[in-house]
Amino acid sequence: MAADLALLLVRLVVGATMVAHGVNHWVGGGRIAGTARWFGGLGLRYPTAQAWFSVITEIGAGALLALGLLTPLACAAVVSVMLVAGLLAHRANGFFVFREGYEYVLVLATAALALGLLGPGRWSLDHLAGIEITGWGGGAIALGLGSAATAVLLAVCWRPEVEAPECAQGTPTESAAPQIETITEEY
């Protein structure tokens, strides 16, 4: 009974968080256009499509988690979204969320993986429908499918801008000329 309540609470909180995040990408702040600009700035090609995929995935996975329906697949979607966010938007900022680090996405991905391993509990639509994919199987789906989806998305759509080496940012005469003139005038 206590374990089922704990699983329900985790499902509801993670699910509601994901739904809220998806809705915010859709209608909050900069709406889809703003989300697309942000995704484009992270180096993702097709940023408007990425924004819509993100919204659909976050809202869909969150709703499925809250209901406890197709739980391992919902967990895989959360793991994937959090991996992409962690790798592209937060990794370079360190651990702490108050510095835009990956702390928050790590907690959500880990909670989703734990739900994949433990299952949704008796108070879920999966239980009512007799869907029992828990333990190593549920965890493998959550982590394996989530990681595979992340790898495919990055392989197909991530094209970060590469900074040109210093020597390619101008010819030596262009970049050195003002310095030479300054030095000549001083002597």
Q: How would you describe this structure to a colleague?
A:
The chain has 187 residues and is mainly alpha-helical. It is 73% helix and 0% strand. The chain is built from eight helices and no strands. The protein has helices at 2-27, 31-41, 47-67, 71-90, 103-118, 125-129, 135-157, 172-186. The chain is elongated, with a radius of gyration of 22 Å. It starts with a helix and ends with a helix. Residues 171-187 have low confidence and may be disordered.
Can you summarize this structure?
The chain is an all-alpha fold. The chain has helices spanning 2-27, 31-41, 47-67, 71-90, 103-118, 125-129, 135-157, 172-186.
Task: Throw out a few tags for this protein.
single chain; 187 residues; mainly alpha; elongated; disordered C terminus
Largest sheet: none
Specify the overall morphology.
Answer: elongated
The percent of residues in helical segments reads over 70%
Number of strands: 0
The H-and-E topology, N to C, reads as HHHHHHHH
Please report which band the strand proportion falls in: under 5%, 5-15%, 15-25%, 25-35%, 35-45% or over 45%: under 5%
Radius of gyration: 22 Å
Topology (elements, then pairings):
Blueprint lengths: L1 H26 L3 H11 L5 H21 L3 H20 L12 H16 L6 H5 L5 H23 L14 H15 L1
